[in-house]
């Protein structure tokens, strides 16, 4: 007995395949639209936290300066990255950012929950020497002696005091070598 194709079974099979393909296409389109909506609602902090979670490397362009390295933590308005023998705390809204997958992610980048202003106060209490990036290739070197509501007071290595408006701050770079 010869097997002759049953036209009803072929039609049913074709309809099932078509319906399944259409449902898969619709689901993919819905997922794409959901992702676009999610990205539209993200602020810079959410973008930075996503990048940190993935283990990405961050590059911050601040005027003529470029700082790049693995993400080590995020604050409420800044991102910390590891440089060669240094760490940089960079205000999120003071740089143009790019993120690329890291080849050696930092174990457990953390969310500090601290603001950049709080970080400045912490630096003032520890008394460590810092490079304070002001953008456009300018910086102040020294120790933060005081943090005010609108400026910081920095003592340079020669004992001179500089008063730097907070609005001019872009990043704090500190040495990790001892």
Q: What would a concise description of this structure say?
A:
The chain is 32% helix and 38% strand. With 178 residues, the chain is an alpha+beta fold.
Molecular structure report:
Helices cover about 30% and strands about 40% of the residues. By secondary structure, it is of the alpha+beta class. It folds into two domains: about 1-40; about 45-178, SH3 type barrels. Strands 1, 2, 3, 4, 5, 6, 7, 8, 9, 10 and 11 form an eleven-stranded mixed β-sheet that branches. A hairpin with a 5-residue loop joins β9 (about 150-155) and β10 (about 160-165). The longest helix has about 35 residues, at about 5-40. It starts with 6 loop residues before the first helix and ends with a strand. The model has no long low-confidence stretch (mean pLDDT about 85).
Write the layout of secondary structure elements.
Elements (H helix, E strand, L loop, with lengths): L6 H35 L2 H11 L2 E6 L2 E10 L3 E6 L2 E6 L4 E5 L9 E2 L4 H11 L2 E7 L2 E10 L3 E5 L5 E5 L5 E5 L3
Parallel strand pairs: 2-6
Antiparallel strand pairs: 1-2, 1-5, 2-3, 3-4, 4-11, 7-8, 7-11, 8-9, 9-10
